[in-house]
């Protein structure tokens, strides 16, 4: 879903500021009204911008207004006003997702300047036709999974609505098992209700197979043949997982296995 917010009549100045950063690396949590900076987590070693950091910078340079820092809070920022998508103008902010979790700067009727995802860079590109074209759902999935770190493992526990009592050995524990956590994170990041077990998530029609070498934050990584365990990729080397009874949701290194894990992208 596309949303547009008109920031100011200084649209061309906002576009010029955003365009001046083309080529700067994407950095999760990076950048802000002062310019590019090191991010956090997978962006901790990269000086650059994430999508909302770029938006905050461009608006400040073009208008001297300091808008909020995240896409969700920028969408409700009091400095901006809602506009129909058909009325978009260069310098407007265009938001993706429901609720919004990705933002870019409109540069023409058909194009925008965006900081898309980890491993990419600030670029001018066609406005996404649908939210499914927007790779920024991946960070939203990671954020949802990360918000549950510390929650106990519960066999059969959890799902798209959140943590819950499990079954059998999990019957007295409120928490998540591996696929319950995956279903929750994908739903919070994309509003898609994927299947509930690791085996059926691997074949879910709402997801597509990706090469392990192409994995991105927010992808699901599966273990076993056939797959019987799943976790959420959070960086090139890390994942967020609900491992086993007696453990809890944690961020940890992706398991090293003889056989490369399988990867599915559900956004």
Automatic annotation (TrEMBL):
Pfam families: NLPC_P60
Keywords on record: Hydrolase, Protease, Thiol protease
Keyword Lipid biosynthesis among record annotations: no
Domain NlpC/P60, residue spans: 8-142, 135-267
InterPro entries: NLP_P60_dom, Papain-like_cys_pep_sf, PG_Endopeptidase_C40
GO biological process: proteolysis
Domain of life: Eukaryota
GO molecular function: cysteine-type peptidase activity
Stated family: Belongs to the peptidase C40 family.
Protein name: NlpC/P60 domain-containing protein
